[in-house]
Amino acid sequence: MKIALDLDNTIINYANSFVSACSLEGIELPNNICSKQEIKNFIRNHDHYEWPMDWIKVQGRVYGEAILDAAVASEVLDIAEKFDVTIVSHKSEMSLCGRYNLREQAQVFLQSRGLGEVETIFLDTLEEKIKYLSENSFDIIVDDLEAVLDGVKSNAILLHYEGEDSNYLKVSNWEEVLLIFNEITDSKIEKLATHLIKYSKNHKKFILKGFRETSRLERELYSLKYDFNPRYVEAIGKKFLIFKYEENLSPIYFDIEFKNRFIEIYKVLQEDMENISFNATDSALERLDYKKNIDRRMNYLDNSISKELETLYGKILSKEKGDRKIEDVRTNICFPDFYRENFYERDGSLLLMDFESFGRDDLSRTFLNAIHHFGHDINNREESVLIDLFTDLSIGDASFWKRVKLNFDLVAFEWLLIAYRREENLSKVRSLANIMSSNIEKNEEVVSWKKDIWWIIDDRLKS
Ligand SMILES: [Mg+2]
């Protein structure tokens, strides 16, 4: 297993160095200030110090002599001993203030922490680093910078060190990294998706799945009690689960058989409802909640398509008219991530393979997401089976289809926001955004690219 580890702020934790660097520069910090960001703000806002000169000097010291006060977790040493590790860093040769040879300082530091023997590659720019990582067949890359992970073109498993909200498998500390390496080591590893690693151990195949939040992992653990979730599971740390790789699974179609079997599954879940105390992810019981979810996702808009999506959302909102609140929303079991690849068939049984987002919520979200989900294409026959299925599931829930109709365009738009963050979805997102814009220009009642379904529902409600 060939592993690339980033140096600054991944292997090296500079928290202590910033405090020592300030004292070397004669900058007096108040007691409550110690992190890099706090120190930076303090220098910028303090009349007594010169911005940005003093900050540049502090940084020079941090990566210069104060690097010796930095910390390295003991697990990094274990990893360097056990695995084939290369340290890959884009560190410029000289510090901005011109006083330090940063690479030499880093080498001295690595030596002092027992990492002197590890192969260390320095590259001048981020682009060169990305090229190096892409071309040297690493199995795993650990870096704290999302821009690096975004750039890598290879099948390597990408671990985002201390990554807050990113699309990558996120690791919070070196203890977690070591747990993962120990689990998947010495086997052929394969990246199935960003959060899924397939590997084998003692001739058995497993999947390691990473979760953004512990609550998602807890939903999966809860679901183990159900027969239709066949998986063997073990948790490692608070954000990773190991599943036995299931063989002999057949993909499903949304047909009558699926419908009947899913109704059976849903009955079991409803009978268990008093024990299901948790909500589905991003729970949305009213229209306002859908908008909140969209606003939150809008905060991350950061690429070429951002402007188009912002304009489109403005237009969707300007179409709103009248009071659009529905009072009698019934809480039920909801699967926000209802799509083909979360279901399989084996020996005549329907299996459900993903519980990380399920919980109490408005069931109509399940239908709306199933229709707009980017993970599958569904044909007309399947669409009509899904309408029949949710008609059966929502018996007694008088405003179910009204809620579906009301929130139809918001969910369609939210899917563009979910999907655009993966590069491979960009052109599809762009073309669906164009369809939605053109529906608005044509003054259509419904903006979503799935508007035909809206009209089928509308017809059914009238009959
Ligand atoms: Mg770094």
Folded structure, characterized:
With 463 residues, the chain is an alpha/beta fold. The protein has two domains: 2-172, Rossmann fold, CATH 3.40.50; 256-462, Aminoglycoside 3'-phosphotransferase, Chain: A, domain 2. 43% of the residues lie in helices and 15% in strands. The chain has helices spanning 15-24, 36-45, 53-63, 74-82, 102-112, 126-135, 146-151, 174-184, 214-222, 256-271, 287-298, 306-318, 364-372, 380-393, 400-419, 426-441, 451-462, and strands spanning 2-5, 84-89, 119-122, 140-143, 157-161, 169-171, 190-193, 196-201, 204-210, 233-236, 240-244, 331-334, 343-346, 349-352, 359-362. It has a six-stranded parallel beta sheet, sandwiched between helices. Strands 7-8-9-11-10 form a five-stranded antiparallel beta sheet. The protein has a two-stranded antiparallel sheet with strand order 12-15. A hairpin with a 2-residue loop joins strand 13 (343-346) and strand 14 (349-352). The site of magnesium ion has 7 residues, from loops.
How are the secondary structure elements laid out?
Blueprint: E1 2-5, H1 15-24, H2 36-45, H3 53-63, H4 74-82, E2 84-89, H5 102-112, E3 119-122, H6 126-135, E4 140-143, H7 146-151, E5 157-161, E6 169-171, H8 174-184, E7 190-193, E8 196-201, E9 204-210, H9 214-222, E10 233-236, E11 240-244, H10 256-271, H11 287-298, H12 306-318, E12 331-334, E13 343-346, E14 349-352, E15 359-362, H13 364-372, H14 380-393, H15 400-419, H16 426-441, H17 451-462
Parallel strand pairs: 1-2, 1-4, 2-3, 4-5, 5-6
Antiparallel strand pairs: 7-8, 8-9, 9-11, 10-11, 12-15, 13-14
Helix pairs in contact: 1-3, 4-8, 10-14, 11-15, 12-16, 13-14, 13-15, 15-17
